[in-house]
Design goal:
Helices cover about 50% and strands about 10% of the residues. Among the domains are: about 80 residues, Arginyl tRNA synthetase N-terminal domain (Gyrase A, domain 2, 2-Layer Sandwich), CATH 3.30.1360.70; about 100 residues, no CATH class; about 160 residues, Isoleucyl-tRNA Synthetase, Domain 1. It starts with 6 loop residues before the first helix and ends in an 8-residue tail after the last helix. It is an alpha/beta fold and about 600 residues long. The model has no long low-confidence stretch (mean pLDDT about 95). The strands form four sheets. A four-stranded antiparallel β-sheet has the order 1-2-4-3. Strand 5, helix 5 and strand 6 form a beta-alpha-beta unit. Bound molecules: arginine. The site of arginine has 8 residues, from loops.
Length: about 600
């Protein structure tokens, strides 16, 4: 790992040396961005703490530090304020040098982690027989952004979609198909195969059968028992049920893959709850032998409550009383699978906040069983996508909005907005549709990610798809403008040159570019992608002020022109990097 060249770190070194020269600890020299950018670029509050420690006057210490710092070529001005704050304004040379570095860096100034880890992301989590809908958006978009960020920072990331393919719903569906098509060979226990290769049900069929089946299962006790039995038989390996179930999975996957492609989301693994199955018998035997699993009311459970608990903490159900594995058991088995195959040091589950209890139970059970410690398992919960009424979003007729419908609506709205703004007028129809789709995806992802992960937000396509304000389309447009500027410069034979920072707007832009590591670190450490959105937006704004104050192609001084062009290209690189981490692809033109 190379030494940090962030302005804060460079300045902290200078201030630290000054503290050390006073016989004080260098760590008092930590500099951070000033709360008053009109007065200073960076500030240090260490003199107060140092003074307290050694029983001296803080202003006296601060004055000595300021005097020493003034000698550094990084510092244009330094002064003591209030009780002993140290305010520093950077020299133009320091800013120019930092800008040069960012311009030359393929990572646009963004560093990676010191010690990469093996990290696992569990997100997506869609269920077999259900089409992706608006409620699935957040896990997908947040999980994807985080996997991109962790990978970019150097971790060895494995993402798994963890399909819901193994619970009671499967037994319900099998029985529902049986009611409609009882003569299929899947239900004939004496049938020796081979089973038909084409599925007896389409995705539309599944979409109809699933709610039908679960409604019956809820109200009809006898039916529910049948469903439990079918689930247990499926899990125990009854060939006809397995063959039919495989069709359910395959048919569902076609749609899921289409939605993933449309959103630009990729998974390393397309595993499901069912993949935990081979690990379960051994796990159960082991937990019984170690008396961690207890037999209770016909089921095998693991108690996870602790004396210190303030809320109720029910046990997990490892194997239910029909001998079937439910949601708890499959998550525990999946931990075994992952430990043996990927051995992650950290696993993050990007799942609705409403499942917090489930994960707490599973993590505790994993810890108790000695599988993975609780500290290596994290539930990254998120709020719901709501309608204008503040309740989970529903379509006008009260249904759920399917994801492909949502994307189609967003594509159409984007196209209309582009037309209004006279964008994409001189490209082919196919390219215009492609741009509109990129705008749509940018709008959807940015509006989701720019909210703090744990809060709810109101879904409003019209507001999301606007080229003005804090939106994905605004950022795309900002990036595309710089791209077109770069093309024009190239056409005119203008080349980027050494960067020299003169104007205030240039200073502000470099300060913003330099802040990239704060944003990435914040997003990474707290698993909060909105820090990425904030940075991208502030960067686009800083660029826009810079460009207004420092026009490029019309500038008559060739040295200034080349410097500003270089700064613009560095901004573009960093903006595209950020958009990429958010999961947004930038078109070349609009
Ligand atoms: N399929 C689950 C659901 O629809 C979400 C799965 C989340 N991941 C997990 N490992 N439990 O609620």
């Amino acid at each position: 790992m190379t030494k940090s060249t962030d302005l804060a770190d460079l300045l902290s070194d200078v201030a630290g040396a000054a503290f050390a020269a006073q016989g004080l600890e260098a760590s008092y020299g930590a500099m951070r961005r000033s709360d008053r950018p009109d007065l200073a670029d960076f500030q240090c509050n260490g003199a107060m703490a140092a003074a307290k420690k050694v029983g001296k006057n803080p202003r006296e210490i601060a004055t000595a530090i300021v005097e020493a710092m003034k000698a550094s070529p990084l510092v244009a001005a330094a002064e003591v304020a209030g009780p002993g704050f140290i305010n520093v304004k950077l020299s133009a040379a320091a800013l120019s040098k930092r800008a040069e570095e960012i311009a030359a860096d393929t990572r646009a100034g963004a560093r990676g982690v010191e010690t990469p880890r093996r990290v696992m992301f569990d997100f997506g989590g869609w269920n077999v027989a259900k089409e992706m809908h608006i409620g699935h958006l957040r896990s997908t978009v947040i999980g994807d952004s985080l996997q991109r960020l962790f990978r970019f920072r150097g971790d060895h990331v494995t993402s798994d979609v963890h399909l819901g393919d193994w619970g009671l719903q499967m037994g319900q569906l099998i029985n529902e198909v049986k009611l409609e098509q009882p003569d299929l060979p899947y239900f004939d226990a004496g049938f020796t195969g081979p089973y038909p290769e084409t599925s007896p049900v389409s995705m539309d069929d599944l979409g109809r059968l699933y709610p039908q089946a679960s409604a019956k299962s809820k109200t009809d006790e006898a039916r529910r028992d049948e469903d439990r039995k079918a689930t247990q038989e499926l899990q125990a390996g009854r060939p006809g049920y397995r063959a039919l179930w495989k069709h359910f999975c395959n048919v569902t996957r076609v749609g899921l893959e289409r939605e993933c492609a449309s959103l630009g989301v990729k998974f390393d693994l397309w595993k499901g709850e069912s993949d935990a199955e081979p690990y379960i018998p051994e796990l159960v035997e082991d937990l019984k032998a170690r008396e961690i699993a207890e037999f209770d009311a016909g089921a095998w459970i693991v108690r996870v409550a602790r004396e210190t608990d303030k809320k109720e903490m029910p046990p997990i159900i490892l194997v239910n009383r029909d001998g079937a594995i439910g949601y708890h058991g499959s998550d525990l088995g999946t931990i075994v699978d992952r430990k043996r195959t990927v051995d992650p040091q950290l696993t993050m589950y990007v799942v609705d906040q409403r499942q917090a209890l489930h994960f707490e139970q599973v993590f505790r059970a994993s810890d108790r069983a000695g599988l993975m410690p609780e500290s290596a398992l994290e539930h990254l919960g998120f709020g719901t996508v709501n309608g204008p009424d503040g309740k989970p979003f529903k379509t006008r007729d009260g249904g759920v909005l399917k994801l492909y419908e949502l994307i189609a609506q967003a594509d159409a709205t984007s196209l209309a907005r582009m037309q209004e703004a006279e964008l994409g007028a001189d490209v082919s129809e196919a390219e215009r549709a492609d741009i509109a789709h990129k705008v749509a995806v940018a709008a959807i992802k940015f509006s989701d990610l720019s909210n703090v992960r744990t809060t709810n937000y109101i879904f409003d396509l019209d507001r999301f798809i606007s080229f003005e304000g804090k939106t994905g389309p605004y950022l795309l447009y900002a990036a595309v403008r710089i791209k077109s500027l770069a093309r024009r410069a190239e056409g005119e034979g203008v080349k980027p040159g050494p960067i020299s920072i003169e104007l205030d707007a240039e200073r502000a832009l470099v300060m913003q570019l330099d802040a990239v590591n704060d944003a990435l670190r914040g997003a990474y450490d707290k698993r909060l992608p909105h820090f990425l959105c904030e940075h991208a937006y502030s960067l686009a704004q800083a660029f826009s002020s810079f460009y207004a104050a420092a026009p490029i192609l019309v500038e008559s001084d060739p040295v200034k022109k080349a410097s500003r062009l270089a700064l613009a290209l560095a901004t573009l690189k960093q903006l595209e990097l950020l958009l990429g981490l958010i999961g947004i692809e930038t078109p070349d033109r609009m």
